[in-house]
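Appendix B.2, paired examples.
Example (i):
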Amino acid sequence: MTDKELAAFPGLSRNQLLWIAGSLLVAGWLVWLLGPVLTPFFISILIAYIVNPLVGWLEGFKLRRDLAVSIVFLLALLLLGLVLLVIIPVLVRESADFFARLPGYVESFRQTALPWIEAQLGIELNLQGLDVERARGLIQEYFSNIAGAAGNVLSVMTQSGGRFLVWLSSMVLVPLVTFYLLRDWRLLMDTLRDILPRNIEPVVVRLVGDCDEALGGFLRGQLMVMVSLGIIYALGLWIVGLNNAIAIGMIAGLVSFVPYLGAIIGILLAGTTAVIQDFSLVFLLSVAIVFVVGQLIESFVLTPKLVGDRIGLHPVLVIFAVMAGGQLFGFAGVLLALPVAAAGTVIVRYAYLNYKQSEIYHASQPAE
């Protein structure tokens, strides 16, 4: 292969491409080998990357960068406190309320929804043998086992001092490393840019900028879309009077990082709850309208304003990247999945466009 044949990557020699490919292979091997150790650092890098624009925005008010970072950390602590003191207790209370209402739900289903279903299907469904109390006991036992398992894990971690110290150090490392990364972010980026070979520096800077636009647009925009949809669904379901509205709305919002998945799961959960709570056409339509309105707001307001057309990441690619990253490298792979997918998409697109403009693609056909 000659340098002229590297049409997809102009400015890069064959040796430089081999060096880059070898470096990527070594980096992947190190991630596979040191995944558990590197995980807190990957979490810190991801957090710093997401909130760095907020720090830059605060710097626009003539604040020193370390002060801007401190303000961001204070806001993060307030948000964490809100989640721990307000949202989680509400979710726990709604879960307890669901178990308390379960016998009534089943009885309501038997008296209202079941006759309608039997009439539509032309068959008789015998649910007389359904033991509601036993079913509720099994569900509660299942969650108790989960809580017991979590307690056993914590007990084992506490007793084996080494593992507990590793876990504790990871919890401390994440905010500490995130703070220093945010404080020195601009210096780190300038240093990385300075050590690049001069002939490939423009190409790398362009690719990194495109990756930042694709990945940053997805992460920051989709995060705001998820939170907004969670609030819209929860508030709408609460207004129409659906039980467990906040929990269902938040779940639907959180899983909406894949388009339409949140609405589908939300409709299934809310529809099931609506059927067993009050099987009436008006109530079911009210619940459906909440999700229709939510999807309209997402399609015409939230996604165009918060995400736009900067993503470049297909939903199928997002799902595959997260699953493949988790399978290959565990939790560290999940954290790296989207950055790698965004970078890969940008590099492939860049190589394809340069190939289409190269002499190889436009070479004249040999005369017959």
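Example (ii):
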Amino acid sequence: MGNLQFDTCDMLRDRKIMLVDDSAALRGALRSILSSLGAEQLTEAGDAGEALGALSCEGIDLLITDWKMEPLDGLALVRAIRAGKSAAARDIPIVMLTSYTDARYEAEAMRAGVTCFMPKPFTARLLLEGLMAVLSGETTESEQSPAELAKTAEA
């Protein structure tokens, strides 16, 4: 596993990652963890509306969001992204962090188009493993894009 840190730095360095959470403390903690893993292009949004606005102007490679936010929650954010006009934004990988640990929440999140569901509390190692899987495409079980998967689930 000696190359894991090197591979991680390479994989995260050039990715534009958006952190969406109404808790500035959690955004700060995520920023610290991701920076220590080599991420250099991090942007933050304090709520789903701010994230949607930023997505319309910025190219984002990965979005990490909390579920429980006000006034628009993370699940609504995911659905809005997957139904959006921009194909690039529709297909970005989305990692959802949540204190909802029941399997029915995970199923609902995945149907909405979440790429990786991560219950809180999580460790830096679990976050790293989830991000590596998402960025290497290992979590995609289908040839369909996340937006197409979300549409299929709605049908």
